[in-house]
Specification:
By secondary structure, the protein is an alpha/beta fold. It is built from 15 helices and twelve strands.
């Protein structure tokens, strides 16, 4: 069996031994476009992929032996999961590997914005504290506290819960969350009240997004939802760029319908150097690094490889995004599909 990996600076040396120990050959090559991506994957059984190149239907249909794609990270929005399921290809991710990092990053962004850390640091490094101290007096009136305010969370999965746990230490008046797939009994464990989306939008002083990118959540933060928020709200997005309509976010920040925002993700990445969002002083932005640390990158890479090995050797992966594929594989084999012909039986334990 063979697996292929997009060449990446974070690919660990341990991969070679991991695959060789199971009699699996690994091939690593650079991929800068769809054609080179297809060329890499067209004759392999498994693939270790990232957000780019996009693993769409065209790519998947061009790879008749491909049985599993394992995405580095939590999201699988760069993969056409429906096409993969239809073709009998398992789609895996590595849940939980960067929960701590993303929650920490969201908190850091919120603290930077409430306490105006960037602005004060910049002025002091210019000598303002010594030369014109009156210019710094404004920060004594505009710095904000989290205590006594309402923190809203949209998306209450692992990262949303980790964010809530951190927020409790700052003494907010309340923490409320919207997640249609979560039970109040679970939220109770974190001191969080589950409410409607409108309640999060209208009642929150600070809102942090931790929802996945789906059709349901696409542009859930737009001019209409922003109009329901307080003008003093601070928005944090360390989830997925498409959750927010970037044009509406720009307008709200520019016109004072939102106090500030911190984003680690954008609709198109990398964000264009000409994007008007980059002209705003009340926006802080980082380059999709919220989930990154040496620990999360290494552990994620190991679990990413373990997913492929598990699928190809009959084990249980860390995260199977499309469990319904198991039924599809059985049906496809009965109909003569050759993708899994060397596997007498496919089932997860």
């Amino acid at each position: 069996m063979k697996v292929a990996a997009v060449k990446h600076t974070d690919n660990p040396l341990e991969w070679t031994k991991m695959f060789n120990d199971h009699g699996i050959e690994i091939i690593e090559k650079d991929c800068h476009d769809k054609n080179s991506f297809i060329e890499l994957l067209k004759n392999v059984d498994g693939a270790l992929i990232y957000s780019l190149p996009i693993t769409d239907r065209e790519v998947l249909e061009a790879c008749p032996k491909l049985k599993v794609v394992s995405r580095g990270g939590v999201g699988v929005d760069s993969v056409d999961v429906n096409a993969a399921t239809e073709l009998g290809i398992c789609v895996c991710n590595t849940p939980g590997i960067n929960t701590t990092e993303v929650a920490d990053h969201a908190v850091a962004m919120l603290l930077s914005l409430t306490r105006n850390i960037r602005e004060q640091d910049s002025l002091i490094k210019k000598g303002t504290w010594a030369d014109n101290p009156k210019e710094l007096a404004t920060f004594r009136t505009i710095n904000r506290r989290i205590a006594g305010n309402t923190v809203g969370i949209i998306g209450f999965g692992d990262i949303g819960r980790a964010f809530a746990s951190r927020m409790r230490g700052f003494g907010p008046k309340s923490i409320i969350a919207y997640d249609s797939y979560c039970a109040q009994t679970t939220a109770d464990l974190y001191g969080v009240e589950l409410v409607s989306l409108d309640q999060v939008l209208t009642q929150s002083d600070f809102i942090s997004l931790h929802a996945p990118a789906t059709e349901e959540t696409h542009h859930m933060i737009n001019s209409e939802s922003i109009s329901k928020m307080k003008d003093s709200v601070i928005l944090i997005n360390c989830a997925r760029g498409p959750l927010v309509d970037s044009k509406d976010l720009y307008t709200a920040l520019k016109d004072g319908h939102m106090a500030a925002a911190g984003i680690d993700v954008t609709e198109i990445e990398p964000i264009s150097s000409e994007d008007p969002l980059l002209t705003l002083d009340n926006l802080i932005i980082t380059p999709h690094t919220a989930g990154s640390s040496p620990v999360s990158r290494f552990e994620g890479s190991i679990k990413q490889a373990e997913n492929v090995i598990s699928i190809l050797t009959g084990g249980r992966p860390h995260g199977l995004t499309n469990p319904e594929v198991i039924k599809t594989i059985t049906i496809n084999k009965l109909n003569g599909d050759k993708r899994w012909e060397d596997f007498k039986e496919f089932k997860l334990p």
